[in-house]
Fold each of these.
Amino acid sequence: MHPNRRAFLTSALTAAPLFVPRSAWGANDRLAYGLIGAGGRGRYLNVNFKKLGAECIAIAEVYEPHLQAAQKDSPGARAYLDHHDLLSHSGLDAVIVATPDHQHAPMLFAALAAHKDVYLEKPMSHSLAQSKQMIEAVRKTSQIVQVGMQRRSAPSVMAAKKIVDSGILGRITLVKPMWNWNVSKPLDNQPLPGSLDWKRFLGPAPDRDLEPMRFRSWRYFWDYSGGNMTDQGTHLMDVVQWFTDSGVPRSAVCYGQRAKNAGAEVPDVFCAVFEYPNFMATWTLNYCNSYDNDWSIQFQGDEGTMILNNAGYRIWKEPVPRNPDPVQTVAAPIPIETHIQNFLDCVKSRQEPNAPVEVGASAVSGPHLANVAFHEGRQAHMSADGFSAS
């Protein structure tokens, strides 16, 4: 390795601090929460909330097998079919909302009306206009709302943000968020085992007869989600905007296709290009290939390049040689515990969490805009207030 580049990397890279779990609540002062939505993500959050000393006392779920699985982790929790009934449960301090995207806004509104703090899974909203409604609703209350974008509380990502803020990359002109994962396949439409309250699942979505694949793979249908564009794009585009202090994009174009996910409505391969005032961003996803598996974001500046991924970050100084030797920090996966702990701490202190609703809205703004461009086959432009497209 060239000595100048070694010196550059030595000064640029800092090891991320280790996370040591601790409870925000004493043995006789535990946060009592309800879980709304006990699918895979909801059960994962439930387990990690419990690890940090919180107590699940109620679960609302429309699909019986999911409810039974969650009760194994929290056998003392009261079971509910309707989330409104859960919100009336005595002694409830907060709720986790881990339902499909189309239910996020109405369930947030109901939780706020019940004066509960909320850990709301991402993507925060189902549309740009809904983001505005959700911000306004939260700011009319004193409730703590944390959107589940855990990179905002990840030590390695926070350390990388400080390095970018130092100006070490120079002027950033292009950012390349990317997600590769070879998991796409035809959707399963076989009958569901166990009972499902289909009408409650639909909620505000258009009424239709039950198709099992719409429940199993709800992220692949526009009625219930923004597809892979908002599901993964919320995480990565948030980091792009956070690191560049850019705000929301001016415009977007998007092209995609359904390659292997037969039966789905949303693409499993796509590329979106975003226009920002001082740089461009290309957000690509391929669920049919595992080269450079998982997520990564490449920040290209005129003085250096950073690649951020689940293992940490690497930096090269310009001009980058033909075959650069990668230098990487210690392995630094993105922990969920730090983000949950931040929420628990803020519930107790009443301070703003790391990912409040304004951050949640900004994070999903670009992906929502790209979906408009995809649906309408044109370049979509963001309104001045960031809550509509033209």
Amino acid sequence: MPKEDILIGIDIGTSSVRTVISQEQGEESKPMILGVGVASSFGINNGVIVGIEETINAITKSKELAERTAGIPVEHAFISINGNHVHSQFSKGVVAVSRADGEISEEDASRVIIASQAISMPNNREIIDVIPCNYTIDGQEQIKDPIGMNGVRLEVNALVIEGSAPFIKNLYKCIQHCGIDIDDLVFSPLAAAKAVLSKRQRELGVVVIDIGKGTTGISVFEDGNILHSAIIPIGAGHITNDIAIGLRTSIDVAEKIKLEYGTVLAVEINKKDKIDLSQIDENEEGIFTRKYVAEIIKARVEEIFIMIDKELKKINRSGMLPAGSVITGGGAKMPGIVAIAKETLRLPAQIGFPIELNGIIDRVDDPSFATVMGLIMWESDENGVFSSGSGGKFKLPSLGRVGQKVRNIFKTFLP
């Protein structure tokens, strides 16, 4: 089986590491899911590596489980990156068209994207990705693909994603220690968006909300372009912590209560329904109402959505996205979360499941697999399989260091 036909994604999250191995099935077909591996993660806190050995062990276990299912070794992969240290900002690049006849070439497109990276940032920050959103040719704006057009002045509006250099190096160290070559790093909220959004949703205007254990990532799209991306430092793990504090019990018991009895809809629970801690763990004692637990959960979930709404207000899109919100990640499975999202964000809301699936889809048809499936689709777009735009395809050159690999990923989000 040719190596170039194998697509691999590894999502390194706070609660678990997920590895998916797939194979290209031709330009008109979906990638075939061949292997899936999930391992608990203990070396990650809020998306950042805090224990090298523990993280290596989790990646290795996840990798081996996927290899065992697929019968294919994991030698290279696209890797997700997350955490509070990752920030994004828009930057403009401007170049003169090089050809005498004024026709814009791939080289011109490469140069203008490289020019957009000229941003001011501290020495301990590193550019992770540069995503071209739209181009301007001699004052004509909102051009998706400039190659082949004529002009004198070429501009690009690009989203520059940058993060802490030490944290990025730690991530690379863990991956390479596992014998895996890194194809590239992909910002988790963007990978999740790739997996769950349709072209129509990206056109109309939508926010993807990826609720993980330690953080919540958001990405906002409109007219096929990305408008905003951010990390909120609260996730589903904070709900577990709240339950542990509120019921004065252990984290493990609180997690079991959240999974078995948790809901956001406190108003729908009978006040007489009780939870006996001794039935969950014989070393615990105490009896609480399910309604009390639901109120604890609701308070934290509302806080997450209020913080998301503040991000939307920064770009003047609060309550103004016709396609609404799409909720992914492990936290998306909390009963009643859609209703709270609608109420707090004043937008339509739905749970986001990975699309474009084939193969052992029962293993990955889950909101918590959105990011890792997005990595697979992201890489397949690199090879032109899922390119949704029109016009020429080209691959931009590597700039030789982490974060300076400018790739042909603007095709990923074109309508």
Amino acid sequence: MNEALPHPQLLLYLDALRDRALAADSLNTLAFSIANDPYSLLNYRQALVFAEHGKRFELLCISGLAKPTEDSPYLVWLQRAVRWLASQLEGREPQWLARDAAEPPPDIADGWSEWWPAGLWCVPIHEPNGKRLGLLLTLLDERPAETLAPTLRGVVQTWGYCWNALVRQRRPLRWRPTRRQSAGALAAAAILLLIPVRQTVLAPAEIVSSDARIISSPIDGVVERMAVRPNQAVKAGTLLFSLDETSLRSRVEVLSRQVAVADAELMAASQRAFDNPQSKNELTVLNGTAEQRRAELAAVTAQLKRTQVFAPEAGVAVFGDPNDWIGKPVVTGERILQLADPNKPAILIQLAVADAIALEPGAEVTLYLTAYPLAPLHGRILETSYQAKASEDGIVAYRLLASVDGDGQRDQARLGLHGTAKLYGKRVTLAYFLLRRPLATFRAWSGL
């Protein structure tokens, strides 16, 4: 009975094989152990380890050699041979395949005669649930002992356990749909693409007044000071800004002296006309000169009165930094500021040409202010521009003006606030909604 028990050295050797397999930290390390460590027990010419990926087999290791990276004739033939060998194996137990008894195809038989010995001992490696993970092919000159397969059964199971653990760690399991599921998903996606949705677009916007009056420079001059601050509420008659009066006062003083001189010459000519008939002819010319000087003085005096600009009505002064205007030369009619009515807010939208959609007056608008992102404002488009112009940011855009509906929302719509407006167009299919921009870009690029 003691003769049937394995030799103690054999047990130690099998334990060493298991320990090396459990110590492997990668699949390549495990394959190297499988191909090289059993040599003392099998005494094979060569051992090959393959990983099975469906119908494809990957060569992981060749005993005594590094993994070849070039497609040599032997490796090309080896891929065909291992697929044929895998089809000959049945079950989980190792099998002996002799060249004479196996009857391989002619192309496999020719390569076998050239590169392999008389027989192969094929050891399939399975995971615990029964799926085959790979193959160990040992090239032997003669069939191994019948007791070898039961002896190595525990080691082969350890290889399968470690192989399965390393594969799961390196590449986690992924769910793969069946053809039926894929077809169903495509059909559902096609149906979803036909669902009608509301066409929308986003654009920058700000709160302006629908009733704003432009205050421009009444004469040519230089801005001396701004009497109001930006966004300051003013009443009718409040001084807004004033122009420099230095040159106009100098002209008034010069013209006043010229008027005095002309009046003196006219009076002297009138006195001489009593005694000298020729002086009567000069009266007409001198009288015209005096009237001209008075008209010039009146015009300059009127301009001097217009150097101070007052608010024609109540509102909010809308302009930029006052320091940008002080000392700046202006011409007649140049815009200085706006006088806006804060009780009539509106939404000014700059819709970029690339984002433009078909919009008509009355289309819905939702404004999300940066200051109040959780309290959107709602309105409708009042007017749209048919010509796109470059904005202050250098973006060519259409100008749209929308209303602010609701009295409660108007209290929140403070002039000058910025945000993002969402514009609602017509209903289109989901496919058109998603592909509108890519199609427009493709047509612009291709010219189709």
Amino acid sequence: MEYYNLPYNELIKRNEPLSRYTTFGIGGTAEIFAEPRNSAELKEFIEFGRDSRLPINVIGKGSNVLVNDSGVRGIVIYLARNGFKRVKRENSSIIAGAGVSLPLLVNKSVGWGLGGLEVLTGIPGTVGGAVASNAGGKYGTISECIMSVTTIDIDGRTHQYNREDIDFGYRKNCFLNQIIIEAMLKLKECNRVALLKRSREILQEKNLRQPLSAKSAGCVFKNPEGYCAGALIEQAGLKGQRVGGAIVSEKHANFIINTGNATAANVLELVDAIKGDVLRKFNILLELEIQVW
């Protein structure tokens, strides 16, 4: 399909392979792949999508996304330009754009002697995705540091939400039909050496327990209330189970790894097999944590 009124043609790629933009390294193409340089251009792409009745998806590091082999219809907006990568310290707070790498932000905060974000060590992705999904784990979540979040909605309007206005929950997206563009994080002055030590300890533990260097999208399933999804999958005897190039990690059963030639169909077949086995053995229905496009 041709679109003749697209803004900023120089910022657009057509039929762009999305496997290049996800940590899974899997998936088909984006019909329209847009890279706005700033919020004004982002608004124009949003308005074009709305007026053309095209679906809009947003991608940062693609660390929580499985793209279907058939690709994605509509517009995929990639927040990787400098206008979304601002990191600014204001006393004990940090303002970070949605496109800022979360590991980079953690390292900067530790280097500045600001505590709170070190609990997110080892989590990939960007600030936008981390805020949208309330990223974190047993050490803490990003919502504990949120002071405010700035978004643009599907009508191109800018909103700023204070922490008390946001109903954060476990892997709960509080910003449906909105695109996060910036977050302000309230941290605390701490000893830089102690923060660095803690960050390294967390990363060391995660390296022991999780396949951090493998091609994956992190934890595939949410933890059911009162249970650990990885433990249920392991107890069901599914570690090492394979479909094509996709395999359940031997290190952490809630990770599915692309061994090099996996397709989205392979991953989805494995997901269905895991859900079926866990339901039969434990009467617990697992819910996906990753997004499937």
